[in-house]
Amino acid sequence: MNFWRDFHGPNAGYILELYDRYRQNPDAVDPETRAFFEAWSPPGNGHRAPDAVSAAPAADLQAVVCVVNLAQNIRDLGHLAAQLDPLGSAPPGDPDLELETYGLTEEALRQLPASLIGGPVGAQASDALEAVRALRAIYSATTGYDYEHVRIPEEREWLRDAIETGHFRPPNQPIDGLALLERLTQVEAFESFLHRIFPGKHRFSIEGLDMMVPMLDEIICGAADSGTRSVLFGMAHRGRLNILAHVLQKPYAQILAEFKDPVQRRIFRDDLGWTGDVKYHKGAYWAAAGENYCDVAITMPPNPSHLEAVNAVLEGMARAAGTFVDEPGTPRFDPTVTLPILIHGDAAFPGQGIVAETLNLARLPGYWTGGTIHIIADNQLGYTTLPQDARSTHYAATLAEGFKIPIMHVNADDPEACIEVARLAFAYRERFHKDFVINLIGYRRYGHNEGDEPSFTQPQMYEIIRQHPTVRERWAQRLSERGAVEPGRAEALLQTRMDQLQAELESLDPEKDLDEAPPEVAPPGTARRVKTGVPIKQLQALHEALLTVPDGFSLHPKLRRVVDRRREALADANSRGVEWATAEELALATILADGIAIRMTGEDTQRGTFNQRHAVFHDANTGEMFTPLAAIP
Fold it and tell me: What pTM value is reported for the model?
């Protein structure tokens, strides 16, 4: 028996407490438990019990129970003590993370084996104190690992191992610090240039969440290296323009021409879509030797304003892209064809019902897309509303817990933590084909839009932001302290980017650089001129096929009578007695006969709400299903 696997978390502590009672008085537990403990002793590492523990007195055993509970609570609640806010607000913490709660001291921990902590940390530390300190350094740093609500042991253990071994962090997976600095410089220079040249024009800048772009780089190239050739983005307007420029590679000239266009006045149409079939630069994060670019098609559909309406649209696009209908019968879905990524607002994620409705579809067979990576652009402010006035949960991402989705809260001012979380998200999706949520916690450097004055409602917050260095500046400082970048290099990179943007602006040709006009719609009456008639003999043959079931298939007696009545519907070619449901099914059958696939989903789709369709038959004896539309000749 593997104790730490079979008795997870608080249950392990409970078993040890029972064992403590049994040691003091065997009659204090029920006969079944007493019989179990007669042949069992507490384990040290999940396989055997160390002599020091199995022979420990009752007082020491109580300390063992407390250490086990402390370790589990650090794993479960450590994110509450993590420094997740770049602006420096203190984390809430939790008493269950403190030694005093358990009556423990550092000296007591030093006397206990690290194996009590379990996992990779317990295997590498010399004693329980060192292991607890290591756990705190992992779970209460600048990333809040929030995954204990995941109920499948294999997934939970995989996450714990990846997190506690540092598998996706340097030095295990290195980061090219200078390349990351260059990418952050691109992001910041773009926003700074637009702010200087087009003051007050709405752009809904990414500033304060700049690391979103390098994180997307990491996820996209992970997908491309695994064979995925299509990435779909759904997002609202916060940071959309920067992502269009640096992720979808929409030309600077076109963006600047649209900004300069006097017809568009103050509002930039960042709600429009864009598709880039691009050579994507791998940048900082793929340090292994080889190609510097990866081929991938990236698509961002249109989405209005701050709405989450795009969520279901994007999932439908992903499902369609990965569905193959090149053979008769049931369509085949391949989750590796495309990767859906949804970027949410921190107020919108818990506040708009379409988010929960779409998450609810994630694991249903008819809607599953192989897992979506969600990134919450958490600037800790919904327009002018603070979180405590906007939601009933501590985190913007807590909604995802109900769907058993792993959540990683990460400080947007720690580039290395952000890259690790992005890698972890993609690896989890790649392995388990399920959703993953990144709660990227940053701030909003300006107002909801650049014409807004945020200090009217959040004066203290914006006084801190005004004095707060950008993530590019902070990363440049960190590299300088490590001796990885020479003095002045970071500012030189920034000036080079600003000069490039200025040159783009000065060379604009509005007629050439402005976006192409949308495609023309078909002339009125086009649909009426299309011939849709079908020969009666073809209809009769299809009708017969739709009413034929395999040998041995038992229809419900009442449904058998309905089928028998329908069989005569087309016996007379001139009859007008074809009911709606029969006409609908014939229409679908003729489309399928032309080799065009049909997707019908939703509640009651098989039978029809009013008991009229019966597109899927269910065997009255076995429950086996048969779909005539999928079996027509």
Answer: 0.86
